[in-house]
Design brief:
Blueprint: H1 8-20, H2 26-33, H3 37-42, H4 46-58, H5 62-74, E1 77-79, H6 81-86, H7 88-92, E2 96-100, E3 106-110, H8 113-122, E4 124-126, H9 141-150, H10 154-157, H11 171-189, E5 196-204, E6 213-221, E7 228-235, H12 239-256, E8 259-266, E9 282-290, E10 295-301, E11 307-313, E12 320-322
Helix pairs in contact: 9-11
């Protein structure tokens, strides 16, 4: 359900993949599904490839572009029936689903987390300049993270629609924007390294909530040597929330054999947390945006509790997102 939302066709294709790969144990299925190979298989099928083609063909329309970015940033939007009628073709093509609310309005979202993942893999920020890396032939993970963090637009992050119910930055918006920054920086700064950014959208069930919570995992393959690192993002996390993400990062490391950075974004210095990750493959990163002076303080903490704060001016990218590579 966390990948298909119960979509009958997608569920059937997932079942066919399970049988084809002989994934008879639940653990084997979960490991394969979370290895980024499931989405590749699904959208390699002609039926679902046509969905991607439809998105690619219409993304050049400004109204469609704005809608796609909004859905990737926020997960869903509410609208009246007349808008649903206008979106009829996107619903008929399997791109969108619209659910009627009790008040007569509709909630519109992408048809499944699998489709969201496929679109995320193909979209990229264009039109922004990247600083030259320390060494163009060797990917520097911390340098990439620092460049991605400083290129985030703090004003955009503070928009009302990008804040959660507590008034802090939305975790999912950070996940999406940060993934886009990482992809663009690696493509431009390391053109000779065959690094790949592999995002995966998930639907995380939340007790007591009618709607589940979107979560975006990001895994980066450094190159042909298959060295990997992952990103686990938190927004204004409490100590308990950060510890939960660190525990998730350890599982992420075990699944992908990857170093994992747990990154906590906050807009209030009083909410900043410095946490010892207590695992040699997990690094905690505290990110404090000082919106008033357009700067960001980034502090890396390793398992030994060693801290390394870096103060950087924000570059605040405003580049457009391209969907041409879907």
């Amino acid at each position: 359900m966390q990948w298909t939302w119960g979509h009958k066709g997608l569920s059937g294709t997932c079942l066919a993949y399970l049988v084809q790969e002989k994934l008879w144990k639940f653990k084997d299925w979960i490991n394969r599904a979370e290895s980024y190979r499931l989405g590749t298989y699904i959208f390699g099928q002609a039926t679902y490839n046509r969905i991607m083609q439809y998105v690619r063909e219409h993304a050049g329309n400004q109204e469609v572009y704005n809608m796609l970015v909004k859905l990737l940033e926020e997960g869903e939007f509410q609208c009246e029936h007349r808008m649903v009628v206008k979106l009829h073709d996107f619903i008929a093509q399997g791109v969108l689903v619209a659910t009627e609310e009790d008040n007569g309005d509709y909630v519109v979202c992408l048809s499944s987390p699998l489709l969201r993942t496929a679109i995320l893999r193909g979209c990229a920020i264009i039109g922004e300049e990247v600083d030259p890396p320390p060494n163009a032939s060797r990917l520097d993970r911390k340098w990439v993270l620092l460049q991605a963090i400083r290129s985030l637009d703090a004003d955009t992050i503070c928009r009302p629609e990008c804040l959660n119910a507590r008034g802090g930055p939305s975790e999912y918006v950070h996940q999406f924007r940060f993934m886009c920054q990482i992809k663009s920086i690696i493509r431009q700064a390391y053109p000779f390294i065959t690094a790949r950014v592999l995002p995966e959208a998930k639907d995380i069930a939340m007790p007591g909530r009618r709607r589940s919570q979107l979560h975006l995992d990001t895994l980066v393959r450094d190159g042909d040597n298959l060295s990997k690192f992952g990103l686990e993002l938190v927004a204004s996390g409490s100590m308990s929330a950060i510890i939960e993400h660190i525990e998730r990062a350890v599982r992420y490391h075990e699944l992908h054999t990857a170093q994992v950075f747990v990154i906590n974004f906050c807009l209030d210095r009083a909410q900043e947390q410095l946490v010892n990750p207590c695992h040699d493959s997990v690094i905690f990163v505290s990110v404090y945006f000082n919106v008033m002076v357009k700067s960001v303080v980034v502090t890396f903490v390793d398992m030994n509790g060693t801290t390394n704060p870096v103060d950087l001016p924000l570059k605040m990218w405003n580049g457009n997102i391209s969907f041409k590579d879907l």
